[in-house]
Structures are given as structure tokens and as C-alpha cells.
Amino acid sequence: MGDVMLQGLTEKLKGMKRVEKTGFTTEQAAADYFAEKEGILDDVGKALADLKGQATTELEALKGTLKEMRLNLKGEAANPKELSRNELCYQLGKAIAAAWVGNLQTLGELRCSPNLKSDNWNNPRDFNWTAEKGFQLSNNKAALGEPMGNMATNEQYLINPIYESAIMQDAAKQSVMMNLVKHRPMTGPSIFLPQRERGGVELKWLTAYGQKIDGSKPQGATRVELKAYTLAGFIPWFDEFEEDVFVDLGSMFIDEFTETYALEFDRQCLLANAAPFTGAFNASDIKTKTIGGAAATALTYKDLREAVLMVPAEERKDCRWFFHESVLAHVTGIVDANGRPIWRGPMDGKPGTVDGYAYTESHILPQMGDIVANQAFAIFMNPKRIIHGNRKGVEIKRFDATTEALEHGELFLRFRKRDGFLVTRSKGNMVTLKTGA
Known about the structure:
Elements lengths: L1 H14 L11 H24 L6 H22 L6 H17 L2 H6 L3 E2 L12 E4 L3 E4 L18 E3 L2 H14 L7 E4 L4 E6 L26 E6 L1 E9 L8 H25 L2 E2 L2 E2 L8 E4 L10 H9 L3 H4 L3 E4 L1 H7 L11 E2 L8 E2 L2 E5 L14 E6 L4 E14 L3 H6 L2 E13 L7 E4 L3
Parallel strand pairs: 5-17, 11-19, 12-15
Antiparallel strand pairs: 1-4, 2-3, 4-17, 6-7, 8-18, 9-10, 12-16, 13-14, 14-15, 16-19, 17-18
Helix pairs in contact: 1-2, 1-3, 2-3, 4-7, 6-7
């Protein structure tokens, strides 16, 4: 019994990923990381306590290893390396350059990992790197310590998750929707979510002792599927890399990625009307308030008020307006029945409001001069009804299988990320403003 437990503990220690040497971009990321490691060591320590009295050589060696790991972990946790913006760009640029030329040693030292499967991506935590053996799987998918073999033909790599977190923080600053919608982590290509309408539980009053309780069948939750698909982008690139350009290289990738990804994120949440996702403007069963004219300039206070009242009060309290900036400019001049402006600008740290409800400006929505007859141009909704499925991992790959590469010698850095978008409970809870016919 003791030998079996010792073997299990040894495997657990071997599988425990070592402390990141590349640094953390935030204190929260460092705290979460070290909390995870401390939990693993606590489990091992408790198991060792159960084995007291079995003073074998293997047990004493295991105790010594545990003690050394605890000391190292305390030192790292007390002084985690925090990356500056310049260091982040340098390390990311170095990783891109390494992926471009297939420098496995640099990729391993920067905690990037090979992505060997096209559909079910690898988890960066499944890999360890050693100078002696190269990349090794660190879980039960292969024998521990077994090298991955010849990887010269692998050209796609997942960047260090720490870099990914920092990049997504930048993208959230450029997106208007990323900080408003609900995010769900996804470990597979799809998950099923319960969607329950209000009033799903039926209540019964009993007015006399011993009264018969009539049976009822509450409305159950509807299962909706959230699917994730792969999003790919191509950045025109060059193949001359020197150490003095690593910072610029990393900065260029972050700028290109965050700008395009933030724009696409907002489009999928709001306007998407083709495979694979549908945005809020085109959600099924959404309500529509048609204004009194074929042009957006006909929008009045009455239209705004009537649109708001089409949403139930319990849902309305969490809703906000979404306009293009030019539409908001028109709204700021609208007055209510008493001649008072319905727009209140941001002040004292509070967001601006339209008739008492917060609003968000988005430049991808229809602008005033382009709105035609019979077109939706604004929406009133709770953004938490939009669910974003986030499958971790950003992959980079040198990509030269293009017509441009053949005709002009132009190369590309391809990046891929996996996401899913789903608009839930749109029926009766969302309303668009639409011009007349």
C-alpha cells in the first residue's frame, strides 16, 4: 500500500509545473499561480503525514524534495517577477522570432509550447522544456520524461499564457463590449447552458389545514448550445530578425492583434448576421420600435420612452442603450415633454445617461448619414445576455502558402484564437430602434 502511494506522490510531484520564470503582468495573476502550486504541495504534505512510520529511503527522499520545493516556492511567491510593458514586448517579440525560425530552445525557455493538433489544441501546461530532452509531455498522455521526438516540421506554437492575458487586457481597452458581456471558459468545442425564462417556478397558496396541493409542472430550463470556432488573422511580416527589434516586433503584434480582434469581438456581439454567429441586432424574436419617419432624424423622446417600456421592468434595470456617436449627437438635442434634455453627460465618475439609462457608443453601428429607411440603428438591452465562450490559447505560425508569397515573396504571421458568441433570452428582453418604411 505504501509503495503504491509513494509512486502516486512521485508522479504528482513530477507532473507539477515549475514556477514560471518569464514573469507576471499583474499581481492577481501571480497570486493565482502561486495559490495553485501551494495547494498541490499541501496535498502531497498531507499524504506524506499518513505514511509516517514507514521510514523507507524513498519516503525520506520524497520528504526532502517536498521541503526543497516549499522553500523555493516561498522565495518565488515573496518576490514574483513583474513584467514591465517593455519587457513584455521584448519577450513576445523574441518568441515570435523563435517561432518564425523554429528555435525550440528559445520557445521552451519562454514557456511557449508546440500546438500539435489542428482541432483539439494542446494545453501549454501539458508541456515542460529541458535543454537536455527538449519538449516533453508533463501529464499522463505519455511516459513522463519522454521527449517529443523530431519537431522540425512543426510550425505552429501557443504563446505563453501570461502573454495572452496581457494581450487580452489590451484588447478589452479597445473593445466596447468585452467588459460588458458575460464570459464563459470553454475546455471543449461546445457547452450546453440552461436558459430559463422568468416565472419558471409555480407557487401555490394553501388556505386551510390539510388542503389538497394541486400538482403543477414548472417551466423547465431550455438547453442552448454555445459553440466555439477558430478565428484566424494574417499580419504581413518580414523575415529579418535581430535582437534590437524584439521590442518593436512584440509591440507591433500586440497592436495589430488587439485592434483587429477588438473590432471583430464587437461585431460578433452586435451586428453579426452570418455563420457562425448571430449578433444582438439580428437575434431571433427581438422586439422592434419603429420611429415616426424614414430617417433617423425623426427620432423623438416619445420613441425612446416607448422602446424602453417594451422591456419588462425587472429586465430593464440592467439594460443600456447602444448608439453610434453621430446618433448620440442627435439624441443630446432631444427634450422631453417638459422641455428638459433627456441626455445627461458623464460627471463625477458617473456614466452618461439617456432618459435615465446608461449608454455605450460604438463606431461600428449605423451612423446618422448612412441610416436608410426600414433599418435598425440602435438597441436597448442588457449586455450580460450576450455570452462569450473563451477557449484559451493564441497560436502563431509562419505562413507562406499564399498567392502573395508566390507572386511577390510576401510572408505572413498567422495568429489563431478560439471563441464562441451566443445571444440569450432576446425574446421580450431586447428592443431595437428602426426607421419607418
